[in-house]
Amino acid sequence: METLLRYRGRPVTASEIQQIRELIAAHPGESRRRLSQRLCEAWGWRQANGALRDMVARGLMLALSRAGHIELPAVKWRPPNPLTVRARPGSIEVAHTPISGKLRELGELVFRQVRRTSEERCFNGLLESHHYLGYSQPVGEQLKFMVYAGQRPVALFAWSSAARHLSPRDRYLGWHPQVRQRNIHFLAYNTRFLVLPWVAVPHLASHLLSRMTRMLCAEWQKVYGHPVYFAETFVDTTRHRGTCYRAANWVMLGRTQGRGKNDLAHRPNRTLKDVLGFPLVADFRERLLSA
Q1: Do residues 110 and 212 make contact, with C-beta atoms less than 8 angstroms apart?
Q2: Which fold has domain 104-289?
Q3: Distance between CA atoms of 97 and 74, rounded to whole angstroms?
Q4: pLDDT tens digits, 216-252
Q5: Which of 176, 137, 171 is nearest to 275 (CA)?
């Protein structure tokens, strides 16, 4: 079957393009969004959690339109770009009374996954106010955890989809580009970890990291319908040494090149960072290298 276009590594054949033309003709007046949903339903394009992959379908249809293979209906409404109009999280009022002492004196520490809950606003506001990088909207799959000692939050974890290309990690795992493309969704990226500044409890950070990584695989499965087998993070060594990660047995994978994912000049333009990784299951490499 003749391939007329490749989209995100997937070949698109002439017969599939004809199916899309017929779908558009059969539903005149429908929006591009609704047409992309219909395409997902027709082709069975769903995420592991059952949600339609309509953004992928919409991107495919737009690529076909730009290549002259199909004619899409005119755009009916263009939503504002959330990257330019998204308001920064507001400050959150919580008790700043110092928490100190020994780890065992904190009592039970409770982890709550707060994304899409009433507590998410508090999570975002605390990160914005107290993390040196502030809050940034994660991309792709994402989870947010608040850790409580009694009724008081003591720490925050933010996780998201892993970077598609990361040389130190890819060398460590030893996977080929095709395997990486197929299995990258089994990796999680720790974008933020914050112990709130009024909490001074020795060994708390490494203790929380250890507990977080033990539960992460199952938590991802609950929300997205698939597990994660390996975690990664970056440490800016101009600010931190990554002591709590190393104490929790994270592995040094290498160092970034300081160019960022959108580099065009092939020259360092930002701080070099250590890349650390942590296996979430014992047979992580076999699972990630499987076909």
Answers
A1: no
A2: Aminopeptidase (3.40.630)
A3: 57
A4: 999 999 999 999 999 999 999 898 889 999 999 999 9
A5: 171
